[in-house]
């Protein structure tokens, strides 16, 4: 073989070619097919509206994940949402007399991204991608809605320093849950997001700076700086205690014509033992009478109640004191997992302390197999005199994911 190579190529190229032939071939994995479908019924009964909402929607995502191709990896995924029962206001279907169920019919390219891992301890991802930072309080994919939020972005994640994770993201566009037919279905952004998470013996200390210029909604252009500390205590077979505390400061940024300084504080302590759990938490978002602390790129459904009353922070701010109880079956009577949770919220204005109502949320989730799950969920908001309007929401969802 060496003589054959020497006859075919000049002597100067022998060594390089031989080394190339002898080096291991780049790792190439079999591609994975993506299938994720959710059939969901949602009902909404809202004070002040004559009609109740009944929505039966089907969301389907299909795609391909190439797996490692040497130092590269490619993913493409399409998403489709259809209405099987459409007695609701999807925000684009013209049914303004019904409560909102923000699941418009849509067919779109949900993700198309290329990742590169050729730099030590570093992953670079370019393209339309799912972005969830931390617990999605500031930037998330709004995964509860049928049409999830994705971003046209560049992301660089570095884990090459022991006990430290660094993230930088440039966001060019937010592809929002409302779809292309909604005037605010897309936002053009000029956003720089930086975060660092350091693991220490006393817990994880995180810091972040989110500089977001929204070119389609200048009032939402903000600079948000924050710090978070979280940890857990576990001793043998005893209970596990977990906790976090977080502070963030927000001001105007970029093309925002306003000037403001607002703060966010949140904290939670929880305990879990033998399948049971309990938590006590507080979220305090300031308002100055004109605007409240804003997190428009967040997975907002996960915070301040599942009834989605406070997706926009009131101008007077909001204080959310909540308690949560949970249970997970250690030996489920059917399927692979069974869990339940109840959360009780008490809301008041941060500025002035006025009553903003209360809410009870509840969920039961059953994992039937590795790929199938069933969820029953409810949110019951009792609004104060003068608003916001009271509302009850119930969901029943069947999900399959491969």
UniProtKB/TrEMBL annotation:
It comes from the Bacteria. The keyword Signal applies. It comes from Hyphobacterium marinum. Keywords: Signal. This is Alginate export domain-containing protein. Residues 1-29 form the signal peptide.
